Amino acid sequence: MKPVKVGICGLGTVGGGTFNVLKRNAEEIARRAGRGIEVAQIATRHPNAKCDTGATPITADIFDVVNNPEIDIVVELIGGYTLAKELVLKAIENGKHVVTANKALIAVHGNEIFAKAREKGVIVAFEASVAGGIPVIKAIREGLAGNRINWLAGIINGTGNFILTEMREKGRTFEEVLKEAQELGYAEADPTFDVEGIDAAHKLTILASIAFGIPLQFDKAYTEGIARLTTTDVNYAEALGYRIKHLGVARRTDAGIELRVHPTLIPADRLIANVNGVMNAVMVNGDAVGSTLYYGAGAGMEPTASAVVADLVDVTRALTTDPNNRVPHLAFQPDSLSDHPILPISACESAYYLRIQAKDHPGVLAQVASILSERGINIESIMQKEAEEQDGLVPVILVTHRVVEQRIDDSIAALEKLDDVVDKVVRIRVEQLN
Ligand code: HSE
């Protein structure tokens, strides 16, 4: 089947990331989508040094893409309200599907854009507009569809969270960290959107509409920024057992819906209080499921591209596959499943905690170390406790670096054969998950 043709408008941080991910993962993406996704044209005025566009046709005029009869899906990544709105409405008018990462556009003009899309029978997908790479829109819209959503609360601006984290952990100044966030491509073109909470309010507006089934109403969101926060308050909050986070909160009450973004003290032991740097997290509370938490990179080149490409796959599936089986049961098309083998546990790799009960004799530790080193196992830390009074045995506790399990099996067998080792060696696998 012929590939779906995509036109990317804007080759900045997200546009460049989208091009790179589509190119790098082309084969796997086609196996999921049911056909290839090909970038047929890019509109940009500036090349992106992090993106080798090769022979892909480039134009300086975004409307060339929208009017290109070859293109099925327009990816709007230019940002802003005015030109982006004109671009998206024209694309819809021309019968093209649209994928966008533009939260400002959706929050402010989404009602009008969706009405036009319904009229024209095209899809407008916007997963990348909220929380970067976290598929939170899909989670709320599809995964939690059986719930009455009570409330949601999220750290939904990566730049702001990066600034607060660096201020708290390293005592850096607000201005210094903001500059770094801009250099890293996290911040908006106008960074006051990040620090004044406008960007978070755009995203919260979208989440609230999806959660509660209300039209988009950005103009009613309460917004308070982080620019006036000082290290003094960050430290006092810490002393009281809290962290300050810039939180977006949407809550359903009998009187109406709360829609607010502001700095917030959160007990330091809550998971969401430990979401640091550019990471985002959204808690969603539904009446059936209770509280759920979605976490991941909230900004940046490839995390945001991940969500854009997921939307492209969704639209491609809708254009391609049997409507009753639009999303394949196993995510990949049935005829594209691979026979990549599942490894036996002995071939899996992990780090290990080992506890060895040994007799309190000289040289035991050396024997343990030599058994491990002969099998190429690197010890990360080792601890020998005092002999327990009743039995005179000493627990030797160690943590290894990552190694294939078979080597640990061999080592344990050798350790258990030592005269000075009694009992079975206790083995617990260690995962840093970093
Ligand atoms: N400026 C935004 C942020 C980019 O920092 O979260 C992702 O929407």
Automatic annotation (TrEMBL):
The residues covered by the ACT domain are 353-430
Pathway assigned to this chain's UniProt record: Amino-acid biosynthesis; L-threonine biosynthesis; L-threonine from L-aspartate: step 3/5; Amino-acid biosynthesis; L-methionine biosynthesis via de novo pathway; L-homoserine from L-aspartate: step 3/3
GO BP annotations listed: methionine biosynthetic process; threonine biosynthetic process
Question: Reaction catalysed?
Answer: L-homoserine + NAD(+) = L-aspartate 4-semialdehyde + NADH + H(+)
Q: Which residues form a coiled coil?
A: none
Keyword annotations for this protein, in alphabetical order, are: Amino-acid biosynthesis, Metal-binding, Methionine biosynthesis, NAD, NADP, Oxidoreductase, Threonine biosynthesis
InterPro entries under this entry?
Answer: ACT-like_dom_sf (IPR045865), ACT_dom (IPR002912), Asp/hSer_DH_NAD-bd (IPR005106), HDH (IPR016204), HDH_cat (IPR001342), HDH_CS (IPR019811), NAD(P)-bd_dom_sf (IPR036291)
Question: A single GO molecular function, which one?
Answer: metal ion binding
Q: Which residues bind NADP(+)?
A: C9, G10, L11, G12, T13, V14, G15, G16
Q: What is its EC number?
A: 1.1.1.3
The active site annotation covers K203
Q: Could you tell me which Pfam families the record lists for this protein?
A: ACT, Homoserine_dh, NAD_binding_3
Q: Any idea which positions bind NADPH? A: K103
Q: Does this UniProt record's set of keywords contain Thylakoid?
A: no
Cofactor (UniProt)? a metal cation
Residues given in the record as L-homoserine binding sites:
E188
PANTHER family given in the database record: HOMOSERINE DEHYDROGENASE
Protein family (similarity comment): Belongs to the homoserine dehydrogenase family.
Q: Which NCBIfam families match?
A: PRK06349.1 (NF004976)
Mind telling me what this protein is named?
Homoserine dehydrogenase
Species name? Pseudomonas songnenensis
Its ancestry begins with: Bacteria, Pseudomonadati, Pseudomonadota, Gammaproteobacteria, Pseudomonadales
